[in-house]
């Protein structure tokens, strides 16, 4: 069920992910130096007899972000090949996401436009690159063994394969009432269940990627995370509390049932760097080449004029809506969308207390460059 409902909002409308993914684009930009180093190293060690280089983007979603990153990778490969005086290999780009992803938008006009730009800007590449969509969970094996040279994932690995087992399946009912995630109102067991689910999922991810990677394979992962050791801090998830307050407002108006809110938990986990590195070491398939933690202010990613207050709140609503709407609809039904996004959230965002909190809100990101052992 979750695999079908867990996807970003498709299409190209004002509330779509394609129109509201500048934040994720900034995540990628903050770690592009790791991608550059990894690709240069890879081209140096791949034998010239190998005429095909396979690049996989896991959790690509929709919109131009996957192609922006791939364009940079193509440029790095081209420049490195020229320095080494070796022929440019053919490039295979594999775009992966869950079955509910809007692959039609991803592989439509945006891809055609991207191919045209590549052909114009990189004459040595011409038509020597190919694109394919691969539908499926990256917590399973996706590609043949030793078939991929470089794996990249940005702003995807915080999503879990499922809501942690035990949050709702108890004889006492839901244990995380009035919270959608890990909050300071949650009992301690909630944090533990989320961490255990992340450990299981990330370990599986590493295991399958090791099987799929070439013997000289490289991987760069960018994971939204946290700086604090305490997962219940609001540093990286301030927007979750806005939804908690808004859903409770809908409960008070009789639009949503309290029991439905109590049983709704968002299936993602923002790990710390220590947690991520611990899982990598324990799983044992990869060597950490370099890691980098950095923060992005939400207010720097809105693409609107700061003085245009109405546009700021509208953009904030659309950014979070692009991520959460499919999950909200699958749990509460379509009837929640209009009152939540057109009435309740805008009223709450207009509060001065919200404005002050949002000015300081940021997202920590954990970037890690890995080499297959």
UniProtKB/TrEMBL annotation:
Pfam family, one: Methyltransf_7
TM ranges: none
InterPro entries membership: MeTrfase_7, MeTrfase_capping, SAM-dependent_MTases_sf
Keyword Secreted appears in the UniProt entry: no
GO function terms (MF aspect): metal ion binding; methyltransferase activity
Annotated keywords: Magnesium, Metal-binding
Domain of life where this protein originates: Eukaryota
Record-linked PANTHER family: S-ADENOSYL-L-METHIONINE:CARBOXYL METHYLTRANSFERASE FAMILY PROTEIN
Entry protein name: Uncharacterized protein
Record organism: Rhynchospora breviuscula
Lineage of the organism: Eukaryota, Viridiplantae, Streptophyta, Embryophyta, Tracheophyta
């Amino acid at each position: 069920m979750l695999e079908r409902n867990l996807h970003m909002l498709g299409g190209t409308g004002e509330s779509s992910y394609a129109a509201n993914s500048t934040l994720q684009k900034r995540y990628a930009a903050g770690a592009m130096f790791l991608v550059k180093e990894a690709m240069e190293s890879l081209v140096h060690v791949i034998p010239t007899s190998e005429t095909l280089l396979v690049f996989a983007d896991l959790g690509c979603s929709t919109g131009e972000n996957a192609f922006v990153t791939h364009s940079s990778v193509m440029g790095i490969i081209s420049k490195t090949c020229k320095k080494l005086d070796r022929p440019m290999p053919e490039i295979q780009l594999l775009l992966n996401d869950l079955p509910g992803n809007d692959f039609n938008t991803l592989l439509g006009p945006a891809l055609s436009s991207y191919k045209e730009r590549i052909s114009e800007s990189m004459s040595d590449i011409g038509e020597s690159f190919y694109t394919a969509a691969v539908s499926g969970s990256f917590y399973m094996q996706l590609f043949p063994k030793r078939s991929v040279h470089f794996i990249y994932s940005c702003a995807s690995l915080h999503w879990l394969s499922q809501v942690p087992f035990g949050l709702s399946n108890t004889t006492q009912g839901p244990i995380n009432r009035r919270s959608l995630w890990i909050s300071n109102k949650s009992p301690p067991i909630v944090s533990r269940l989320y961490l255990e689910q992340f450990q299981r999922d990330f370990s599986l991810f590493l295991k399958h990627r090791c099987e799929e990677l070439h013997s000289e394979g490289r991987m760069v992962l960018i994971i939204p995370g946290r700086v604090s050791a305490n997962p219940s801090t609001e540093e990286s998830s301030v927007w979750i509390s806005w939804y908690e307050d808004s859903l409770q407002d809908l409960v008070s108006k009789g639009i949503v049932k309290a029991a439905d809110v109590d049983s709704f938990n968002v299936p993602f986990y923002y790990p710390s760097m220590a947690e991520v590195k611990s899982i990598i070491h324990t799983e044992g398939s990869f060597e950490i080449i370099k890691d980098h933690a950095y923060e992005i202010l939400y207010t720097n990613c809105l693409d609107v004029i700061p003085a245009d207050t109405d546009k700021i709140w509208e953009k904030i609503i659309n950014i979070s809506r692009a991520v959460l709407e499919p999950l909200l609809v699958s749990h509460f039904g379509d009837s929640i969308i209009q009152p939540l996004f057109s009435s309740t959230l805008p009223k709450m965002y207009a509060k001065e207390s919200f404005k002050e909190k949002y000015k300081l809100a940021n997202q920590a990101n954990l970037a890690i460059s890995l080499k297959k052992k």
